[in-house]
Amino acid sequence: MSLNIKNETDQLVSVILGVANEMVQKQSLEDCIDPKTRENILNNTFPTQESCVEEIEKFCEVLTNYNVEVLRPNIIQNLNQIFTRDIGFVIDNKLFISEIIEQRNTEKDGIKYFIDNLDGEEKIMLPNLIKVEGGDVIVHNEFLFIGYSNSNLKVSRTTSESIKYFQDHFPNKEVIGFEMIKDDTNPYESILHLDCAMQPVGKDKIIIYEEGFENIDDIKKIIKIFGKQNLIFIDKKEMYEGNSNIFSINEEIVVSDPTFTRLNNILKDHKIITEKIYYREISKFGGLFRCSTLPIKRKQ
Length: 300
Prior knowledge:
Blueprint: E1 11-17, H1 35-42, H2 49-65, E2 69-71, E3 88-91, E4 94-97, H3 112-116, E5 123-125, E6 137-140, E7 143-148, H4 161-169, E8 174-179, E9 198-201, E10 205-208, H5 216-226, E11 231-233, H6 236-241, E12 247-250, E13 253-256, H7 261-269, E14 273-276, E15 293-299
Parallel strand pairs: 1-2, 4-5, 7-8, 10-11, 13-14
Antiparallel strand pairs: 1-15, 3-4, 6-7, 9-10, 12-13
């Protein structure tokens, strides 16, 4: 299978979509690695396997209705395999296999069959010192955006060393690092991944939560690249609900949640169709549609 990901919005051809079967049914606070899951453990609202399977299979149905080839991880018992975005990501024609936190490392075994079937030059195992999760990597043609944090918090999944690594690997791209706000316990004050605070959509638009960035100058960089008129701002509550974590099938069609009323209306005004899937249970783990996908190929 050929790999090709130049941006977030070209016509999707193939994708690895996560699975919720055999997921962890109960989790302790000690084992929790993100504030949103922690909140739902404390509130006794931890999502059930049945509800998560129902939501993600509806996502799968929408993708297949648009003739997208949908691959799935091999199921591993007692493991959350919903968020395939983080365990690997494609940039141009290379699959990078993430160096992720120890608690999630086994998730990579679910896509081993896919990795093993790639030619050697198509896959790159990231070095141990380059800590990156795919949710922190956004490809935008000649730009590569990377969210990072050098703190010792559990939610700091990508470090600044990754910026230099990708600059060296892609000398023809402008690699821009964004330091993100992090907090292990408060989901309203923590950006787990870059795609929880920004997301290109359509031909030239970008969803943005500006308070998620440590440095105001980073917002100025985004404005310079996209133009202020093309920024779709979301507020703290919308960030918490996951409004930036929608997923583009192409420039004119996105998958979104029906509860994102204001955002969906804005997208409609921009002539972008929203395929609406209720994803409230999966969102309790801190990720939504983009987090559930590992795009393999888009057609330009």
